[in-house]
């Protein structure tokens, strides 16, 4: 892979640039208590998925409206708890290098704008471009968000390096660029 | 905590952001 040909970097937020694991765990812990779900059932499925998708998997018997209410409660818990969001180890060093080398970058997250802005602010990260769930019709793993970020940065998406901690997000960087296929 | 990162292109293997920082520094300092 020719890293030297990368012209921009697109970062996921939670679990990549921002360490919000403790806050996320607290929100799910409270939610699973309230909804009588096994306390750690969310762990293997929530990362990179919308709250509603995770709720549907945890509570398959809920109807559409009940899922919406349960997902809204989960999001509300996240919005209320920003106490220990922080830049992930190495995040500020990476961003400093990108500025040094003149490489544009963006944050592409499935979080809503309010939560993303709050967590990034708490982490001391100010992205030139921030793409949130409100900016796209199709969320990760559909590559709409990464393509939008590339367009706003003025670069070709196939020349972007996409950095994620979750499979759905990494898949959103596809299709593969011609220059690293071989 | 960033335990492992996935990237596109997928053949760039990094475990965490410090490793990515090192790769970026090596690559773009040399170009």
Please characterize this protein's 3D structure:
- The complex is a heterodimer of chains A (182) and B (31).
- Chain A is built from 7 helices and 6 strands, in the order ββαααβαβαβαβα.
- With 182 residues, chain A is an alpha/beta fold.
- Chain A has 2 domains: 3-20 and 85-180, 3-Layer(aba) Sandwich (Rossmann fold), CATH 3.40.50; 21-80, no CATH class.
- In chain A, helix 1 packs across helix 3 (64-80) and helix 2 (51-58) crosses helix 3 (64-80).
- Chain B has 31 residues and is mostly helical.
- Chain B has one domain.
- The radius of gyration of chain B is 10 Å and the shape is flat.
- Chains A and B meet through helix 4, strand 6 and helix 7 of A and strand 1 and helix 1 of B.
The radius of gyration of chain A is 17 Å
Parts with pLDDT < 50 across at least 5 consecutive residues of chain B: none
CATH names the topology of the largest domain in chain A as: Rossmann fold
Beta-strand segment tally of chain A: 6
């Amino acid at each position: 892979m020719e890293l030297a040909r990368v012209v921009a970097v697109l970062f996921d937020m939670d679990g990549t640039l921002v360490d919000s694991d403790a806050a996320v765990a607290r929100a799910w812990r409270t939610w699973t208590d309230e909804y009588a779900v096994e306390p750690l059932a969310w762990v293997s499925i929530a990362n990179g998925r919308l709250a509603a998708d995770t709720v549907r998997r945890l509570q398959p018997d809920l109807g559409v409206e009940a899922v919406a209410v349960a997902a809204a409660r989960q999001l509300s818990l996240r919005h209320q708890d920003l106490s220990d969001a922080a830049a992930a180890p190495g995040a500020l060093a990476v961003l400093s290098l990108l500025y040094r080398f003149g490489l544009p970058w963006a944050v592409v997250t499935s979080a809503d704008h309010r939560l993303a802005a709050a967590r990034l602010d708490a982490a001391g990260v100010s992205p030139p471009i921030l793409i949130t769930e409100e900016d796209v019709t199709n969320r990760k793993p559909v590559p709409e968000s990464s393509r939008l970020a590339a367009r706003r940065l003025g670069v070709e998406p196939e020349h972007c390096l996409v950095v994620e901690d979750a499979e759905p997000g990494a898949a959103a960087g596809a299709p593969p660029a011609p220059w690293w296929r071989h | 905590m960033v335990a492992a990162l996935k990237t596109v292109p997928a053949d760039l293997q990094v475990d965490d952001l410090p490793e990515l920082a090192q790769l970026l520094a090596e690559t773009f300092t040399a170009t």
